[in-house]
Specification:
Elements: E1 6-18, H1 23-32, E2 36-41, E3 46-53, H2 56-67, E4 72-86
Subcellular location: Cytoplasm
Pfam family, one: NapD
Protein name: Chaperone NapD
């Protein structure tokens, strides 16, 4: 008898503080990253972002990509959850 394979599903959320002058371009660039979505933005440059993926490394790679974008001043991890899914 075989054991069902399990995989992980990760979701994390960030608040990204960005230069207000680059907010629109930055939102677009973040939305282009696999598994990422900007859900809200304020006029003073704060973005609410979620990232979904199959591993913690995948999420951390996306966070690093966001932090390296022009106009990003800082980011703060707000939430991280891992679920196990059976196949």
């Amino acid at each position: 008898m075989s054991t069902p394979a399990t995989s992980e599903f990760h979701i994390t959320s960030l608040v990204v503080h960005a230069a207000a002058a680059q907010l629109q371009q930055l939102s677009h660039s973040i939305n282009q990253l696999a598994g990422t979505e900007v859900h809200a933005a304020t006029a003073d440059g704060k973005l609410v972002v979620t990232i979904e993926g199959e591993s913690q490394k995948q999420l951390l790679d996306q966070v690093e990509a966001i932090n390296g974008m022009a106009g990003v001043l800082s980011s703060s991890l707000i939430y991280h959850q891992v679920d196990q899914a059976s196949h």
